[in-house]
Design a protein that fits this description.
The chain has 2 domains: 140 residues, Aspartate Aminotransferase, domain 1 (Alpha-Beta Complex); 275 residues, Type I PLP-dependent aspartate aminotransferase-like (Major domain) (Aspartate Aminotransferase, domain 2). The chain is 37% helix and 16% strand. It has 16 helices and 15 strands. The strands form 3 sheets. Strands 4-10-9-8-7-5-6 form a 7-stranded mixed beta sheet, sandwiched between helices. A 4-stranded mixed beta sheet has the order 1-2-3-13. The chain starts with 20 loop residues before the first helix and ends with a helix. 47% of the residues are buried. The chain binds 3-[O-phosphonopyridoxyl]--amino-benzoic acid. The site of 3-[O-phosphonopyridoxyl]--amino-benzoic acid has 18 residues, from helix 2, helix 5 and strand 14. 3-[O-phosphonopyridoxyl]--amino-benzoic acid (PXG) binds next to helix 2, helix 5 and strand 14. One of its GO terms (biological process) is biotin biosynthetic process. GO terms for molecular function: adenosylmethionine-8-amino-7-oxononanoate transaminase activity; pyridoxal phosphate binding. Its cofactor is pyridoxal 5'-phosphate.
Length: 441
């Protein structure tokens, strides 16, 4: 086996994503191996993974079943096209996904990432209306502070200004709902906050402005992750569903983070009892191990495409790696691991302990809000005056130094550990965070 050095001697060629490259390369932080709940750094230290990588390693790291499935598939059928061809495992995987999907979502389109799932979902929404003879429905409605990946459709419907402002005028015909972040009313809510259901009614205003006949779809994260864990107020998603139904608008849930057990249910749709028309996923679909995404659609949407001459391609869309066999093998082994260990509902069992542990941080230095749902948590800190994000970055560095991996966005610490976490490890995360909060400026 090829042994690679743990510290490469030239860091310049790799232009790192979403990273302060120059700063990083002066003081690199390197992860060289991982097992279950921990990473190991190049200087041999263990880091407790408080973020499941980037919200994706839901079953924990280097799980034998998944590793073995990948190894086996790579030796048997490494790559096969999915355009006008098939291979057994992709059909098998789609069926197993539909088995755990919310009621009625019984077709799956494969992609390679969350961003591609979003683009695919938006295109399906537009093409669906056109296929039904309703081609004037071209507008897409996103939400302020939404994150839907980094491709053009996703940043257009997304609402994070730094991800949008450098890239021109984006997609035309997009409008945005207001975000649901109401710290004045909802700070330190345990679970779903009480206030703000009326924010869903803003959709009626947008409909009144543009007319329903021009609107194709609304896309929201059931729980906004990247913007710093913003929860939907009680009743909000149900209200959105009702307004969409009333006006013939498709509802897309972006479940790239919330999918595969993050909230203690297989999907957020299950948690909130609201089924969207289209659902985007990625990340936990393969435990983050092989890049993959999937878009789930209701039968009615899929079937609207299945007309015209049978020799014609129904949907002019797809990726070279849609349904890649090794990704499917990883995905099937991931689903088996989730099932054997009850991971898709483990967040529910641990949810109360997680909530109590997190909220014990109330009153610690800098803390202005704490939010939680399933196995997701956020600790919001007061920014240092005139230097937003600086305090959070210090917290991140301190965690890295002391043995805890956290994720920060703005001045918010976001936590989303692997779903295999124990109660003891939850306490360990919170003890670490307490120590971090007490030790930073
Ligand atoms: N939709 C949602 C809701 C996401 O959270 C994407 C789409 C895009 O997925 P890809 O696979 O193209 O990255 C995401 C990704 C963070 C963080 O720390 C979140 C994501 C990615 C990286 C970091 O908040 N979410």
């Amino acid at each position: 086996m090829l042994e690679r050095p743990k510290r490469p001697n030239d860091l310049s060629a790799f232009w790192m994503p979403f990273t302060a490259n120059r700063q990083f390369k002066q003081a690199p932080r390197m992860l060289v191996s991982a097992k279950d709940m921990h990473y190991t750094t190049d200087d041999g230290r263990k880091l407790l993974d408080g973020t499941a990588g980037l919200w994706c390693v839901n079953a924990g790291h280097c799980r034998p079943k998944i590793t073995e499935a990948i190894r086996h598939q790579a030796g048997e059928l490494d790559y096969a096209p999915a355009f006008q061809m098939g291979h057994p495992i992709v059909f098998e995987f789609a069926s197993r996904l539909v088995d755990i999907a919310p009621e009625g979502m019984d077709h799956v389109f494969f992609t390679n990432s969350g961003s591609e799932s979003v683009e695919t979902a938006l295109k399906i929404a537009l093409a669906y209306h056109r296929a039904k003879g309703d081609g004037s429905r071209t507008r897409l409605i996103g939400r302020e502070r939404g994150y839907h990946g980094v491709n053009f459709g996703g940043i257009s419907v997304g609402g994070i200004v730094n991800n949008r402002k450098m890239f021109g005028t984006l997609l035309a015909g997009v409008d945005h709902l207001p975000h649901t972040y109401l710290p004045g009313k909802n700070a330190f809510s345990r679970g779903v906050p009480e206030h703000g259901v009326e924010l869903a009614d803003e959709l009626e205003r947008i409909v009144a402005l543009h007319d329903a006949s021009t609107i194709a779809a609304v896309i929201v994260e059931p729980v906004a992750g990247s913007a710093g864990v913003i929860l939907p107020p009680k009743g909000y998603l149900k209200r959105l569903r009702e307004i969409c139904d009333k006006h013939g608008i498709l509802l897309i849930f972006d479940e790239v983070i919330t999918g595969f057990g993050r909230l203690g249910t297989p999907f957020a749709a299950d948690y909130f009892g609201v089924v969207p028309d289209i659902m985007t996923t990625a990340k936990g679909i393969t435990n983050g191990v092989i890049p993959m995404g999937a878009v789930f659609v209701k039968k009615e949407i899929h079937d609207a495409f299945m007309n015209g001459p049978e020799h014609m391609i129904e949907f002019f869309h797809g990726y070279t790696y849609s349904g890649n066999p090794i990704a499917c093998a990883a995905g099937l082994a991931t689903l088996e691991t989730y099932r054997e260990e009850g991971l898709l509902t483990r967040g529910e069992e641990l949810g109360q302990h997680w909530e109590d542990a997190l909220h014990s941080l109330k009153g610690e230095p800098h803390v202005i809000d704490i939010r939680n749902i399933g196995l997701v948590g956020a600790i919001e800190m007061e920014p240092i005056q005139g230097q937003p994000t600086k305090r959070a970055f210090s917290a991140f560095l301190k965690g890295f130094e002391k043995g805890l991996l956290i994720r920060t966005t703005g001045d918010i610490i976001a936590l989303s550990p692997p779903l295999i976490i124990t109660k003891g490890q939850i306490d360990e995360i919170v003890d670490h965070v307490r120590e971090i909060l007490r030790s930073i400026d």
